[in-house]
Amino acid sequence: MAERRLKHFGWGREGEGLTAEEESAALDRYRRLFGVDRFDERSPPALSEIALRQPRITPPPALAASCSSEPYDRVAHTYGKSFSDYARGIAGLYDNAPDVVAYPHNEAEVAAVADWAAGAQAALIPFGAGSSVVGGIEPAIDGTQCRAAISLDLRHLNRVVEVDRTSRAARIEAGVFGPAIEAQLKPHALTLRHFPQSFEFSTLGGWIATRSGGHFATLYTHIDDLVESLRVVTPRGLVQTRRLPGSGAGPSPDRLFIGSEGILGVITEAWMRLQDRPRFRAGGAVQFADFLSAARGVRAIAQAGLYPANCRILDPQEAHNTGAGDGSSAIMVLAFESGDHPVEAWIGRALECCADHGGVPEKSGSADAHREGAAGMWRNAFIRMPYARERLIGRAIIADTFETAITWERFEGFHNAVKTATEAAIREATGRPGQVTCRFTHVYPDGPAPYFTFHALGRHGDLLSQWGRIKSAASEALIAAGGTITHHHAVGREHRPWYDKQRPELFAAALRAAKRAVDPQGLLNPGVLIDP
Amino acid sequence: MAERRLKHFGWGREGEGLTAEEESAALDRYRRLFGVDRFDERSPPALSEIALRQPRITPPPALAASCSSEPYDRVAHTYGKSFSDYARGIAGLYDNAPDVVAYPHNEAEVAAVADWAAGAQAALIPFGAGSSVVGGIEPAIDGTQCRAAISLDLRHLNRVVEVDRTSRAARIEAGVFGPAIEAQLKPHALTLRHFPQSFEFSTLGGWIATRSGGHFATLYTHIDDLVESLRVVTPRGLVQTRRLPGSGAGPSPDRLFIGSEGILGVITEAWMRLQDRPRFRAGGAVQFADFLSAARGVRAIAQAGLYPANCRILDPQEAHNTGAGDGSSAIMVLAFESGDHPVEAWIGRALECCADHGGVPEKSGSADAHREGAAGMWRNAFIRMPYARERLIGRAIIADTFETAITWERFEGFHNAVKTATEAAIREATGRPGQVTCRFTHVYPDGPAPYFTFHALGRHGDLLSQWGRIKSAASEALIAAGGTITHHHAVGREHRPWYDKQRPELFAAALRAAKRAVDPQGLLNPGVLIDP
Question: Do B491 and A249 count as a contact with CB atoms less than 8 A apart?
């Protein structure tokens, strides 16, 4: 059965979305939060209503069959899934649509597209599945040297090419979507075990290019640590690194391309480290009096060397919003899993760490505990969340998230400063209070990765500006308080002003020089990370 | 009590070395190995016998008090501790002695020395404690644009400046030697827990610059993973990265400087991730029929997600040479430790993994097992080994090591190819058989880091060439078979021919460009990693 195509506006494939019940529950909650009876409803324009400029370039004959300038393709490759993308999409603004979308069938065609782009002085925008929430795949070329834009969609590079059971590794093409990777690994009883929230609609290459974070809280969860070697097509040729379990030979070549967000080359395939599928599990939810107590429990576990698969905490409001709690306490979603051995000793000690900070288990020990109770409610809400946004923006509801990381000793003050600044910005931008909640997505011995969600009621016609003021205030606050502008969402174009404050100036100079060495014409994803 | 100064030739401080018993036992073993009754003995020249060129530059008045051109300083900063260094040292060849050794007292003086170097077009060679085994600190400027050479010794940057108990991190200056770091952390009940074999005579900055590997076999043992943030003085100014437990904001700035071996800047301090001091330990030695069975046991443990502190294997000959075994079986040195919880569940499962491959524990469960029995014998030999080389070369004994990493599915063939090529090269270069042994120093789920030791009997006057032929053959073999030219010894100048084959050409172009951005005159450690 052929899969339906991806929506040109919204999350997932055509025909998918929130159920009527889910939508109604979400809207009820927002009506109560904002104290309104109804919302001002708008719909996004139909594909046929979207005006596009004439394409400025045409592919050479040899690539014509792998390229399209059809409206659907161009519209569906204009935006990712950030709030700003939705706000411009619902307003019908598609000025930055690519001139051509290329769908190469193999690495040789990727190189051919790069050659064509070089000849045409066209921007080349690597595209996985378009789930960027930071403007990472928008063909925005105003102010650059580029005369046109090509979106390079890697969906046909969709195979697990080779599996090495002994070393537990696989050679995987960059355009494979998450579920297709796991489906191809399952017969080998192996898993990449990398499950970002975007899992269904994101690709291996996108994960590597953006330093994606999986949903596991500790240890081998970041794509950075799962990469064994890379193949990258640059305008000056191919980069191929060695398959090595470890190496100390100079600065890691892989680490230069991991997180390069398409500005240094097009990742075409990687050898990835795999894991055995989990056979043993234990976990459940733990209640804490408040978020800061829960954070201290997390710190104890993170510093104990136990490495839980999950160790997230939700503040009381976020627990309430996701159905995981009644709003009176903070919730920790705690889980251990192993493909090798029972994990009772591990969870037992972790629960002791929780108890030291007043944490009371809701239920524990069940193998499926992570799918039941509060943990299960939260898990379900987590997976469905991306579908909500396209429905909320039609009601002028500004619902967005941002994420960061900070060391433990600054966390409490940091959390307070960022939450306060964001709440104030919501009042200032929209004229009424909203809500800011927090959870942890990842935890390290030296600090957590706090993930903030905010909700505000905006006004159609003014959404982009209202959101921008809130986003700016939140970003300013977290940079001023010592955090990172992104822990796993990447920089793209939207985080540039704050990334520019965060990264050392001489590192930017070095990165710019490195880019010129592999992309002398400045064609690759201009505007992302650095200006040429 | 003032510490004695470091030897100008040999390992450690003046007056330290092998005991007569240790030396006699080692020589007995070599007599049996090579079938000789006596060795042709030579001594290294005394300091006063070493001829040095006149210094080509003089420091500016403001730096004069922090600089020296005394013979001891210049001689002691000419070489590291590679075989080639010893071979040239014993022959009295000190053509590459630095003109001046600078001992800055703080970061401002480091910057002042860099400014002076820029004005004088002098090479600037960052120097920690001089334990490089790859020619990483030799002021070799022939063929470069540099007109003189300054060795920049960071020994006065020797403080743990700040300790953050909550996040378990410390701000540490780059020039602190290993024992001084631990001594300063001990009152806080914290440890960096990074113990390379060179621990006593190497520094934090050197570890970071060379991607040092600690002696723990798994997980947080590489310096790469322990760095939270860096300060680096470059000729164009200071680089300061943010203290973050994790970040996904572009390619990691830290990872560009980690492993940069002094070519991008002088690391002056770092925030480092610490750990609680271990309170719980279990371990001991496990015997296996042969090395390959032991390797399969290691693979099982590495893929089980148990993360032992130690999980090294020694082949039968290496076990015999170090006193850990009788030569009839391979030995695994296995240990778990934790600052938080008993580790019985962990060691219990690891021993099951061993048993699956025929591994029989010698003794286990004792808290001090790692200091007793075969494990203890090996540990002692490991710590004393560096002192042996200065005594062996005087007898024309070529004893050296090299290390690499490879994925599991290629390991057995790789091991055979490298061992065979090295043995053949020994016969070809010296006219008689020698010995090549192997152990693992680090293990990963996807492969081990094999560490080879070789022993050959050379001839005074020809040692450098004989060693070079063996080293080249071994390096060619491991590169041809897919390994890395170094897992944790670094590239320096000696590994360049094989590193040049290993790293992608376009990565070298990017690194070269990055270097020009921060070191436009090409002053920093010329010849290391890349040519300007």
Answer: yes
Strands (E), B109-226: 122-127, 148-153, 160-164, 169-173, 190-191
> Are the CB atoms for B428 and B470 separated by under 8 Å?
no
User: Residue B447: beta bridge partners?
Assistant: B444
Question: How many residues are present in chain B?
Answer: 532
What's the token pair of residue A63?
A: 């690539």
The residues pairing with B6 across neighbouring beta strands, listed in sequence order, are: B13
Q: What is the pLDDT of residues B32-87, one digit of tens each?
A: 999 999 999 999 999 999 999 999 999 999 999 999 999 999 999 999 999 999 99
Q: How far is B238 from chain A (nearest CA, A)?
A: 8
Beta bridge partners of A127: A153
Amino acid found at A523: L
How distant, in Å, are the alpha carbons of A508, B376, B427, B435, B457 from that of B29? 55, 20, 19, 12, 12
The residue among A324 and A498 whose pLDDT is bigger is A498
Nearest CB partner across the interface for A484, out of B212, B247, B483: B247
Percent of chain B with pLDDT over 90: 93
Give the ipTM. 0.96
- Measure in Å the smallest separation between the Cα of B59 and chain A Cα atoms: 27
In CATH, what class is A61-277+491-532? alpha beta
Separation CA A285–CA A312 (nearest Å): 10
Is residue A27 within 8 Å of residue A20, measured between CB atoms?
no
How does strand B190-191 pair with strand B447-457?
unpaired
Contact B246 A164 (CB under 8 A): no
CATH 1.10.10.60 fits B63-277+495-532, yes or no: no
Kindly report the backbone phi and psi dihedral angles of residue B28, in degrees, each rounded to the nearest multiple of 5, phi listed first: -60, -45
Which residues between 336 and 355 in chain A have a beta carbon less than 8 angstroms from any beta carbon of chain B? 338-341, 344-346, 349
Sign of the Cα torsion A169, A171, A177, A179 reads negative
Residues 440-479 of B with CB under 8 A from A: 442, 444-449
**Tokens representing residue B352 in the block:** 């099951």
pLDDT, position B490: 98
Task: Round to whole Å and give the CA distance between B280 and B143.
Answer: 55
- Measured CA to CA in angstroms, residue B336 lies from A219, A276, A302, B373 at distances of 18, 22, 18, 16
Of B169, B236, B242, the CB nearest to A446: B169
B residues 187-226 near A, CB within 8 Å? 210-213, 222
Of the residues B133, B166, B229, the best mutation for testing chain A's interface (the one with the most A CB atoms within 10 Å of its CB) is B166
Q: So what's the pLDDT on residue A410? A: 98
Q: How many CB atoms lie within 10 A of CB A3?
A: 8
Q: What are phi and psi of B188, to 5 degrees?
A: -95, 5
Which CATH architecture describes the domain A280-480? 3-Layer(aba) Sandwich (3.40)
Query: Does B229 contact chain A (CB < 8 Å)?
Result: no
Q: How far apart are the CA of B174 and the nearest CA of chain A, in angstroms?
A: 18
Is the CB of B488 inside 8 Å of chain A's CB atoms? yes
Could you report the per-residue pLDDT of B471-527, keeping only the tens digit for each? 999 999 999 999 999 999 999 999 999 999 999 999 999 999 999 999 999 999 999
- The domain ranges of chain B are 63-277+495-532, 280-480
Instruction: Give the Cα separation of A101 and B396 in Å (integer).
Output: 67
In whole angstroms, give the CA distance from residue A318 to residue A308: 21
Whether B175 contacts B156, CB under 8 Å: yes
Average pLDDT, whole number, for chain B? 95
CA dihedral defined by B267, B269, B270, B272, rounded to 10 degrees? Answer: 120
A169 touching B (Cβ < 8 Å) = yes
Contact A248, B489 (CB under 8 A): yes
